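Appendix C: a fully annotated inverse folding record. The material below is reproduced so that readers can follow the format used throughout the book. The structure is listed first as tokens, followed by the designed sequence.
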């Protein structure tokens, strides 16, 4: 006789994978032109990976770092590591080696899965990172021989699965509140800060994500093919590999970002959905081979930085549907999306474009406020600026081993984002700047984001960043650093940009005193590890000007 003992159902990542395996076993997962398999076959490899990790002693909450591109192997680690009760720690592979060493030491990782491309880092890291005892090398080469590294056990990924893996491995039942993943902020205002998330937080985030895509704008459809363009080291690739697995979508992984490869994959695999920072959309549109491809019908969510109007207009001209999203590493990450609300389908096209370029409105289960310096809500007038503060089931509970930063980040249970925004009358958020990026001139604020968006609409501008530089009288004044389009390199001038901005002054869209005093034209702008324009680097460079 069965005992009638209630068992609490755990919201854990295995439930996401099991649905895909049960209901969509034949749907494809593609890695460049090298690997093509399905969810059923992926599950076997995920079980092999988990059993192999356990066989070499990585179990019972082991912390396993990943330094890998967007590959099918990274996808397998996304599930195998947390499902077996270990912690997945994704590493930003674009930051300096000593920053990586700091992160690995702070996290006290036990092992690392590392792409062959980053093996030179190991020589730098081996004398600085003491906790890592096992190194698993990931490579596309079939005859790869892993190097010998003193004091470390070194394995090759495919050999590890073949020699130690068991596809009949049974995953344990894990508590939904157990830590599933660990990652670090970019450290733009100091040392990187550790952020961790439980199974429950990631599952809830994955469940809610599709709900925001039922509204007009960029929508999800069961026929969608999703290409993973958000780096998988960056906040679970915005959680999308988990959501797309839950939905049973075909997923395409491009490996290391090469837009020649990405454009071919979009065409060959009939990709319909992508997400990424504005720089990635820029690279997609302006790559030398881009003009050879029909991108019409592609849907893309832009996040991580404001979407410049000029870039939006070029995407629209190419037939790409683009909307904006918003979130942070600390929020797992997504909080808002700029699809239309019910009844807005008949709005004029110009008004809909304005909405799509806004920061959006909150997702289900997200409580969001914009508050002034006294923590009072600002009016929804589209003008009064304040800081975004949020509550949601997937917001961090604390910074790892940093109670001081944790205390600074919360007020009465609300997480302070550090983003300056306004509420519009129809309930949309529009970020006007980060606190660290807003230009403080004569006691007033100038929005660098607004100026960048306007300058981006000049036909000769490819990319632009606006920063504040010191001024003896006003404290700070704006400076525009511009990358011209190739056919404008020898003819664009500061007067051209000033004249362009003055049109918006005359239309009453910006005050005259916002117009920058200084302009610089250059071949490229510095980028962060996640592909955003690095204003911190620009401020350091131009501080004396």
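Designed amino acids, in order:
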């Amino acid at each position: 006789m069965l005992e009638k003992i209630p068992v609490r159902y755990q919201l854990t990542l295995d439930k996401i994978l099991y649905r895909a395996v049960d209901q969509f076993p034949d749907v494809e997962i593609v890695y460049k032109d090298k690997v093509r398999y399905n969810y059923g076959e992926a599950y076997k490899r995920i079980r092999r990976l988990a059993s192999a990790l356990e066989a070499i002693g990585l179990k019972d909450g082991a912390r396993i770092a990943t330094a890998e591109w967007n590959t099918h192997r990274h996808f397998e680690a996304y599930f195998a590591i947390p499902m077996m009760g270990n912690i997945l720690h994704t590493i930003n592979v674009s930051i300096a080696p000593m920053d990586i060493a700091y992160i690995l030491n702070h996290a006290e990782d036990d092992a690392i899965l590392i792409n062959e491309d980053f093996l030179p880092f190991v020589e730098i890291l081996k004398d600085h990172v003491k906790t890592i005892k096992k190194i698993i090398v990931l490579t596309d080469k079939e005859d790869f021989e892993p190097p010998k590294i003193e004091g470390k056990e070194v394995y090759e990924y495919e050999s590890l699965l073949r020699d130690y893996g068991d596809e009949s491995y049974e995953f344990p039942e894990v508590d939904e509140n157990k830590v599933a993943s660990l990652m670090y902020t970019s450290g733009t205002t100091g040392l990187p800060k550790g952020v961790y998330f439980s199974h429950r937080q990631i599952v809830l985030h994955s469940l809610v994500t599709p709900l925001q895509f039922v509204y007009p704008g960029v929508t999800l459809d069961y026929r969608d093919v999703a290409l993973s363009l958000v780096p998988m080291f960056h906040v679970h690739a915005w959680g999308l590999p988990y959501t797309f697995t839950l939905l049973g979508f075909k997923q395409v992984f491009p490996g290391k970002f090469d837009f020649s490869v990405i454009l071919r994959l979009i065409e060959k695999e009939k990709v319909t959905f992508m997400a990424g920072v504005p720089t990635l959309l820029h690279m997609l549109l302006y790559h030398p081979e881009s003009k050879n491809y029909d991108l019409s019908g592609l849907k893309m969510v832009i996040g991580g930085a404001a979407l410049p109007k000029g870039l939006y207009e070029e995407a629209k001209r190419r037939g790409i549907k683009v909307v904006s999203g918003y979130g942070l590493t600390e929020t797992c990450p997504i909080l808002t999306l700029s699809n239309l609300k019910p009844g807005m389908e008949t709005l004029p096209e110009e008004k809909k474009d304005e909405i799509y370029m806004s920061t959006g409105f909150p997702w289900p289960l997200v409580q969001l406020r914009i508050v002034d310096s006294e923590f009072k809500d600002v009016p929804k007038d589209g003008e009064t600026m304040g800081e975004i503060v949020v509550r949601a089931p997937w917001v961090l509970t604390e910074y790892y081993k940093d109670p001081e930063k944790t205390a600074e980040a919360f007020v009465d249970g609300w997480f302070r984002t550090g983003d300056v925004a306004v509420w519009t009358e129809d309930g949309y958020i529009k970020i006007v700047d980060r606190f660290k990026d807003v230009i403080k001139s004569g006691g007033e604020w100038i929005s660098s984001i607004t100026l960048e968006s306007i300058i981006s609409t000049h036909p000769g501008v490819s990319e632009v960043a606006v920063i504040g530089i010191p001024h003896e009288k006003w404290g700070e004044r704006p400076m525009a650093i511009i990358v011209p389009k190739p056919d404008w390199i020898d003819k664009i001038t500061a007067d051209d940009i000033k004249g362009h901005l003055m049109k918006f002054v005359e239309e009453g869209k910006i005050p005259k005193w916002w117009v920058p005093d200084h302009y610089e034209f250059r071949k490229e702008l510095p980028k962060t590890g996640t592909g955003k324009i690095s204003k911190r680097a620009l401020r350091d460079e131009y501080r004396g000007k």
